[in-house]
Amino acid sequence: MAFDSPMLVSDLWYNDGNIVLQAESSLFRVSLGVLAARSPVFNDIQTLPRSQDQEMYGDCPLMVLPDKAEDLANFLRAVYNSGFFAPIPSKTDFDMVAGILRLSTKYEIPYLRQRALLHLDTVICNTLQDHEARESKRTIPPTNFLAFLIADLVHEMDLEWLLPTVLYLCTLSFEGITIGYMHRGERRWLNSSQQVACVKALRPLIKWHRKDILSFLYWTNVDGCKSSARCNKCRLALLEALSSHKLINALGPFADIFEQSVREAFCESCYIASRDAHLAAREALWEALPGLFELPSWEALRTLREEALKLTGS
C-alpha cells in the first residue's frame, strides 16, 4: 500500500462492496458494478481478469488510485447519492465542484461533469447581463481568491471559454497576480501564461476605465441639463474620489458605484445620460475582454462551451 495507516471512510464503506479503492490514506469499499454502470472506465476495469499477484484488502481486490482522497470521496458520494451533488440552483462549494469535475472527466461520467460545469457557470459568466446578476444566482459562495482557484482549475481542465471572465476577476487583485495567494495553508500562484496575460491586460483595462467607462464624468454640457454648475461640480468630485481608488472594477454596475451619489447630485437628464453611457462603455469592454487577454472571440468561446456541454450529455 501507498500509506502505512490507511483509514476507512465510514459512509463509503459498503459491506457488500466488492472492491476497495485507495486514494492517499483513505479507503473506500464500493461496488465495482455500480461504478461500471455509470463509468466506461470502471466498466473496462470490471472486465479485466484478476491477476494472481492482485493486492487484496481482506477479501476484496485493492486498487490504489492517484486521486486526492477528498476528490474521490465527493465523487463516490455523487455517484451513489443523486442528491449529494445536486444540479443548479442547489448550493455547493468550490472544492466539491472542482473534485467532481476532475474525476467525472477522468472516469467519463457525463452528467456529473455537465453538472459541475453548470455550477461554474453561475460565477464565471459569458455575458455581461449574467455577470451582473451572478450574486443572486451563484451556487458557489464567494471565498478569498476564488477567481484564482477557478483560474487554476480552468487551466488544469482546459475550460478556455471561462478564461476572459476569470482572468478579468483576477486582475482585481494585483497582489494575487504578483505574489500569489494562500489556500489551505499553502501559497499558490497563477500559472505563468495566465500571470503574464493578467499583467499585460492591466494597463489597457486602466486606460479603458478612465477613458471610456468614466467618460460621462468629463462632460461639461448635457442636452436638457437643468443645473450645469451643480452637475459639473458633482462630476469633478467623483473624479477626485475615484482617482484615489487602487482597485479598479471597470465592469462594476452603475447602480453599485454611482447610483446614490449621482441620483442625489445630478439632474434627471444628466443622470439618465450618465447611466446609459456607463452601460454602453461596459458592454463595449465586455465584448473586448477576450482580445485584452489574447483569447479567441466570445462567439468562438461560447461555441466551445456549447460543445463541451453537448459532449457531456446536454
UniProtKB/TrEMBL annotation:
Signal peptide: none annotated. Residues 17-124 form the BTB domain. It comes from Laccaria amethystina LaAM-08-1. It holds the Pfam family BTB. InterPro entries: BTB/POZ_dom, SKP1/BTB/POZ_sf. This is BTB domain-containing protein. It comes from the Eukaryota.
